[in-house]
Amino acid sequence: MSIQALKDALPPYAKDVKLNLGSVTTTSSLTGQRLWGTVLACALATRSARVVAEVSAEAADHLSKEAFTAAKAAAAIMAMNNVYYRATHLIGDDAYSTLPARLRMTVIGNPGVDKADFELWCLAVSAINGCGRCLESHEQVLRAAGVSREQIQDGLRIAAVLNATAATLDAESLVGA
């Protein structure tokens, strides 16, 4: 199971997705842990069983047990936070942003890996889940930690390509060839 298996499964009309899937996993400016943690967290955020299976098998070869668990935690916590913070933002009443969330999210403060790595994974998952408030927050933390815009952009590209891969493969399974 691998990224190559996902590339091989993409239909001819998704050639651009296929080429991008290869490039985001081989030409990234990210460290190995940041890259594969981002790929894993994004795969989980797509909720595509096929993408999760292929990516998790390969990511396990590149990540420590702690980093693998932290990437899963990033996807899990952002699944909750992205809904909450996106909703409080979209309601349009600024009073909601002054109320305490009263949601437990201690893993963000103590993820078990480098904080900047975890923040990048959270940012990428937030891109898939469409939460502007979380994107802004995680981008600010990353920039303050010295992460370059190019590295943040790499994380966003990974999110976009994994999401497109999942959407294409899941659609193909529904409509057939």
Mean pLDDT: 96
Name of the CATH first level: Mainly Alpha
CATH H-level name... which superfamily? Answer: AhpD-like
Query: What is the terminal-to-terminal distance?
Result: 22 Å
How many structural units, i.e. domains? Answer: 1
**Secondary-structure class:** mainly alpha
Query: Helix segment count?
Result: 9
The count of β-strands is: 0
CATH topology title: AhpD-like
Q: Which bin fits the share of residues in helices?
A: over 70%
N to C succession of SSEs = HHHHHHHHH
Q: Name the poorly predicted regions.
A: none
Largest sheet: none
Protein name: Alkyl hydroperoxide reductase AhpD
EC number: 1.11.1.28
Active site: 131 (proton donor), 134 (cysteine sulfenic acid (-soh) intermediate)
Domain Carboxymuconolactone decarboxylase-like: 99-171
Written overview of the protein:
The protein has 9 helices and no strands. With 177 residues, the protein is an all-alpha fold. It has a single domain (3-175), classed as AhpD-like. Helix 7 (115-129) runs antiparallel to helix 8. The chain starts with a helix and ends with a helix.
